[in-house]
Structure formats: structure tokens, C-alpha cells
Amino acid sequence: MTSNCTKGKRNMKLASGIFSVTLALVLGASTTWAQTEPAAAKPNPEPAAAKPVPTSVQTFTLTNVSQPQEANELLTALRNLLDPRDKMTLVPSGNAIIVESTPDQLVLARKILNDLDQPKKWSQSKMTYRLTYTITDIDGGKRVGSQHYSMVVVTGLRTQLKQGAKVPVVTGSYSTGSSQVQQQFTYLDIGMNFDATLDEFANGVRLRTKVEQLSVDEEKSGMGPQDPVVRQTALEGTSFLTPGKPLVLGSLDVPGTTRHLDIDVVMELVQ
Predict the structure, then answer these.
(1) Are 197 and 209 in contact (CB under 8 A)?
(2) Is residue 86 helix, strand or coil?
(3) Under a CB-based contact definition with an 8 Å cutoff, are residues 235 and 208 in contact?
């Protein structure tokens, strides 16, 4: 009886020891697994910024543009359709547009200009008109005199009229290498200058015109004995004309006097 009790106690101690060892192994394995669990994957770094596309400069010559307004319309079209970061410059003296952009944008600019810069479509119904400009000199409310200038204009074409003289103005100098200095000159159109373009519309005829008067003042500029002071009076605008009906374009005061000039124009159909 005593032997059996002793064996039972030994068996209980052995079982308790085995349970303790098993529990320790399980806890140790869990701890080890928790410590060796792989770390969460790090998010991928942000992609590197794209390298800027190199740009180049190209000059587009306008072959069918005769008016500054037409060139400005083409420049506006490019600015509206190309990348806003592109640089564009209009060169009126060379009748050209300079564009700095990427190669694909330059190709697009070429296509746009090829589509828009087209020869004018001439129709058999082109009309010919006579424009007569009248400049009336009024001093103190009294009419002193008037001058008339006439030109024949074909719709769609630009016509210019100049009356006066060309005055040389020194613009620079250079050495010829033999201790002689040569001067460079440019010439100003002093007098009356008229520029007119007529276009037909359903509701009348549109006139785009510029009237300019240039004169040499007796006062000197102070820059040099050959540098004159040039006085300029100019009137530029767009109007709609009715044949046979005079239209007042504007009135200009003459500086330093009580005079002013009234400018009007009348259009007549040439048979």
C-alpha cells in the first residue's frame, strides 16, 4: 500500500516536470518566432523626377502675311495652342516668328503656321475703291484750309501713299582703317503718310488705316548738330465705310498753337 502511494507521487512529479518542460519549450519557441519574424517591407521610394526635355530655337518666316495685324493673329494662335512655357517673339522687320520650345512643340508650331499662313483666296468679285482723305486745318474755330489725298485701293490689298521728303539722320559712325570716319544714315519720311486696307463684309466695307504726319522742328535735340527733333502726329484705327458717305476719323490738336486738324475719309466705287 505504501509502495503504491509512493509510486503515484513519483508519477505525479514526473508528469508535472514533463508539463513544465513542455510549456517552457512552447513559450521559448513562441518568443523565438516573434523575434525572428521578418520586418514589414519598406515602401518603394518615389520615382525620380523626369529629366527636362531640351529645347531649341527655330525661326518661322511668314510668306503670305502683309499686315502687322495678320502676324499678330498668327502669334496669338501659337500662344493659345502651344505649351504656355514656350517663348515666342514676333519680328515685324523680318516678317518672322521665333519660337523656343521642345522638338515636338516645334513640329506642332510648323503645322499650325503651314495651315494658317496661306495665300489669299482671290475671287472674281474683287472691288476697287477710291479713298479720299481730307485734312482740314482749323484755327480758333475758323477753317483755315484743307488738303485732299486720294488713292485707289483694291479690297484685300494694302495700299500706301506718302507725300513729303526724306530727311537723313545720322545713326552711327565707323572707321575705314585709314583714320577716316564714315557716318551711317537713315532716312525719315517727313510729310504725310497714309496706309489703308479694305475688306468686304456682308454689312459694309471695313477700313484699316493709319494716317501719320511727320515734321522737323526748328529745335535741336542736343545730341548733335545733325540730330533733328521730329514731331509726329498719328491716327490709326478700324472703321466701317459706306460708299459716298464721309466718315470723320479723328481730330488732332497741334501742340503749342490754337489749331487742330480734322481728318475724314470718303470711299467711292471705281467703275
Answers:
(1) yes
(2) coil
(3) no
DSSP state of 84: T
β-partners of residue 236 are: 210
Give the CA dihedral 215, 221, 225, 226, nearest 10 degrees: -40
Strand, coil or helix: 102: coil
Are the C-beta atoms of 197 and 158 separated by less than 8 Å? yes
pLDDT digits (tens, 9 = 90+) for 106-157: 999 999 999 988 876 644 457 899 999 999 999 888 888 999 999 999 988 8
Cα–Cα distance between 183 and 181 in angstroms, integer? 7
Q: Work out the angle between the directed axes of helices 103-116 and 68-81 (0-180°, nearest 10).
A: 140
10: enclosing H helix or E strand: helix 2-36
Give the separation between CA 164 and CA 17, rounded to whole angstroms: 128
CA nearest neighbour of 77 among 54, 125, 111 = 111
Say if CB 186 and CB 168 are below 8 A apart. Answer: yes
- CB of 122 closer than 8 Å to CB of 134: no
Tell me how crowded residue 270 is: count the other CB atoms within 10 A of its CB.
10
Question: For position 249, what pLDDT does the model report?
Answer: 92
Residue position matching grid coordinates 502726329 = 233
Query: CA nearest 162: which of 196, 189, 132?
Result: 189
SS3 63: coil
pLDDT-based confidence at 248, cuts 50/70/90? very high
Handedness of CA 196, 74, 95, 125 (dihedral sign): negative
- Here the cell at position 9 is 507521487
Closest by alpha carbon to 150, among 270, 251, 259, 232?
Answer: 270
Question: Rounded to 5 degrees, what angle do the CA atoms 96, 100, 106 make?
Answer: 80
Helix and strand element counts for the chain (H, E): 3, 11
